[in-house]
Vacuolar protein sorting-associated protein 35 (Protea cynaroides), 790 residues
Amino acid sequence: MIADGVEDEEKWLAEGIAGLQHNAFYMHRALDSNNLRDALKYSAQMLSELRTSRLSPHKYYELYMRAFDELRKLEMFFKEESKRGCSVIDLYELVQHAGNILPRLYLLCTVGSVYIKSKEAPAKDVLKDLVEMCRGVQHPVRGLFLRSYLSQVSRDKLPDIGSEYEGDADTVMDAVEFVLQNFTEMNKLWVRMQQQGPIRDKEKREKERSELRDLVGKNLHVLSQIEGVDLDMYKDTVLPRVLEQVVNCKDEIAQYYLMDCIIQVFPDEYHLQTLETLLGACPQLQPTVDIKTVLSRLMERLSNYAASSAEVLPEFLQVEAFGKLSNAIGKVIEAQVDMPVVGAITLYVSLLTFTLRVHPDRLDYVDQVLGACVKKLSGRPRLEDSRATKQVVALLSAPLEKYNDIVTALKLSNYPRVMDHLDNATNKVMAVVIIQSIMKNNSCILAADKVEALFELIKGLIKDLDGSPVEELDEEDFKEEQNSVARLIHMLYNDDPEEMFKIICTVRKHILIGGPTRLFFTVPPLIFSGLQLVRRLQGQEGEVAGEDEPATPKKIFLLLNQTIEALSYVPAPELSLRLYLQCAEAANDSDLEPIAYEFFTQAFILYEEEVADSKAQVTAIHLIIGTLQRMHIFGVENRDTLTHKATGYSAKLLKKPDQCRAVYACSHLFWVDEQDGIKDGERVLLCLKRALRIANAAQQMANVTRGSSGPVTLFVEILNKYLYFFEKGNPEITSAAVQGLVELITTEMQSDTTTPDPSAEAFFASTLRYIQFQKQKGGAMGEKYEPIKV
């Protein structure tokens, strides 16, 4: 059926064009022979094709444009005729004898254009006559195109200021009156289209109306181009008359389009000065009109106007633009009870954008907008509409982007209240946006109360909201979220130790309620933040009396110890062990032996009870040995206890090569190369000999299990340790001992049972080259190496 209708319409259009071209041909012939009577006859017959009611507006436009082109030629002929002495007044009378009203009025408008140009009568009289005459056509589509033609031929002949057709003092008013009258009649015709035809064709009619809307809107554009329309005339005449027509037409499509036209075509300055009048019309529009978009565009234009120059800002203050816009939005939301939440929030986003551009210094205005949004959202369930949540995110992001400083946003009391209305997923997105803003702008949060407010804002990342289990989250997303919180903790800093300690306590309070899965990410940055504070306080001993200076190293270490203990719920023994060792080293630098010893004790307990994986044990024991080697604060008894533990655990590792490496690493615990460091040569030698025995046992075990000895890498590594202590002056490590070990390795490598290992051989060769190099270097070291034969 639809296909048939389209085909029929194409056929009717083709017939119309054929008829038009046929008559146009004879019209041209008459024009060429200067036969006025035949020219008018055929032009009237040509224009009769426009009387059709069978074409859609789109197809009718094609026909109209062909007729328009022909009328241009006819107008040129009329001009020539008037120059040759033909009376335009007679011509004006003559065309009115055309049989049908539509061709008659098209011809009348065409001659009228020449009549005005001839200046034989005032432009205002001719225009008034034409606009009145056009009332004779009341068919919506035909009437709209006729009046559009009138607007087209008259737009450069309006009696405007500076125009050649300018008349007496009220000339501009005549021009405005003409355009307004034409606009009013065109709008009535346009609206009437909606009432014609059956209800089932409503969508089709709305589409057709949409295609014709620019015909009506052009009148407003013409009005905006009239030079004589200054602010006073716009305020007193133009805007009230246009708004009266907009409100009275009571048509949803017309009201939306025309309000948008008003906003787009007239200058920003006029909008600002007539804000009250323009906004006063909004609540009077039909409830179904998309007024939020209209207001949003108005605020966007005003925002851009404010941003264009600082000089215009006083005008905004003078007319109290914010108050008027805020009041208007409130009235619109109140009047349109069924307005969806997303519509209301969109309005508030536009108002906030406007406020941030025009009044960036007025935080109370910004908070007022957020408060209005909270009021709209209160009493409703959490937002689940994706469009609404997107708008809320835009609302909350605007202050961050404007101020580039989270501290300013934290001053807004309604900011967290808006966030509370977001669903959990969007709450997290917004929290990430806040953290990214802090990172991007390198914002440092200096006060504990601000940290408290900030962590309230980002609570969606710090704890499970409404019991939503963390397992539902994508693992990668969860890691990214928690890493962003970890980065944030490093941005919290204050030069005042007391305030910094308060900040650490505040952060600790929040992260400890985050559940075991989050602690793995959030505890380490907090610990390092605490250790940074400890290093700033080095030199303070003991507790300080009173509350004036509560941030002492002891107090901080106590807090850090309790915080690391919380990791036992994760569990994360390897991480906890690393953090205990970091704390022990910081306590060593602060000369707090009992605290350092306690941290080592905790590390060993963790190693004994929690670290079960053999690889993790190897890593852990090397960390313990390395940290213990750097400790200078321990007395003999404490150091012996801890080194004994370390060597004992080293020898108990599962794999022989791991045992060997851990035991020879322990040798460094008995020889610290510092002025006051321990230098126990005997115990160094004991460790190295024990390592050799373990390496030998590893060789034998390899022989039993594989039928051949394993590589000699362990022996070469021990040889290097011998050389290290030999150079450091350990009296127990003699050149004979080094010589013996070199010969042992050489023998092992030449043995038939040893598996060839190129890397071990290269390692040994490199070590021998080093010995040779030291011998050749001469001096005291050369003499020391001289007895060793390689």
Q: What stands out?
A: The CA atoms of residues 238 and 470 lie 61 Å apart. The longest helix spans residues 2-32.
